[in-house]
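Troubleshooting log. The previous structure file for this entry was overwritten by mistake, so regenerating from the original sequence record. Sequence copied from the archived sheet and checked twice against the printout by T.R.
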Amino acid sequence: MEIPEVIRPLILAAKDLGFRLFLVGGAVRDLLLGLKTIDFDLLVDGSALDLAQALAGLEGFSLVSLHKPFGTAKILCNGHPVDLASPRTESYSQPGALPVVQYPVPVSEDLLRRDFRCNAIAVELTSSGFGQWVDPHAGRQDLADRKLAVLHPLSYLEDPTRIIRAARFATRLGFTLADRERKLIAAALTDERVQGMVYRLRGVRLGIELRRLLELESWLEGAQLANDLGAFSLFGLAKLNIPETCSLQSKDWLLRFAWLLKANGQSALESLPELVKAFQIPKSEREKLFRVNLEALEKI
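Regenerated output below.
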């Protein structure tokens, strides 16, 4: 796997400062699949906060933010955003709750908190271990088999946003969801703490995942898969009746969501304002979205 040119100055600087770096997650997945990636997540063996602050004093680097509770930082490397994180563990007190975080931990333990096995792969970028894989869950084999699988049976219950993410990745990457995954998703959705959770917990994150799903080029296919999985129950919606084709030309995710709701009758569409409020879209933006989108929707 060829290391992207954009992060090479960061690798050299980290080595000079005595830090070990690992490329992890979606960037590794996409590079192994031969896909273009612009988002780089790097694990720092030690303190990502210390590395970010040390880099901020070097030419070509600037500090964007530090998030001490999670041990994460965002920097600019020659103008390109890069996320740094200390390896951490996460535990959940209830479905959809914010995780309890502990860091630093070994890189292999950090991979346990990832959503899917194909995203739980790391490769070392610095020191004598350059190019060595950390792949304790056979994520590279899942990539070869083009399938999605979570790391443990309670994964979808601990973080139900992963159900929408499963539909998005399966659609975007052309991967399959095995029967085991569908059964685990169905089991998670039977938990009463999960139904309609957008109004109680994680409304922002559910909105973000829905937006990413509906911004796909094959968004209708993604929505149909999410619907088949029962994912819209997270938004307090019954299973939708989604048409096989859509004449809607807009790429606006909220208009696409409104179209899905409108296809299921006025009562479904009337749930949109409360849902968008739960997504915590700023009021000024929310009002603009409704004015533009609902006017466009009336023309469909």
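The two ends are 47 Å apart (CA to CA). Archived copy saved in two places this time.
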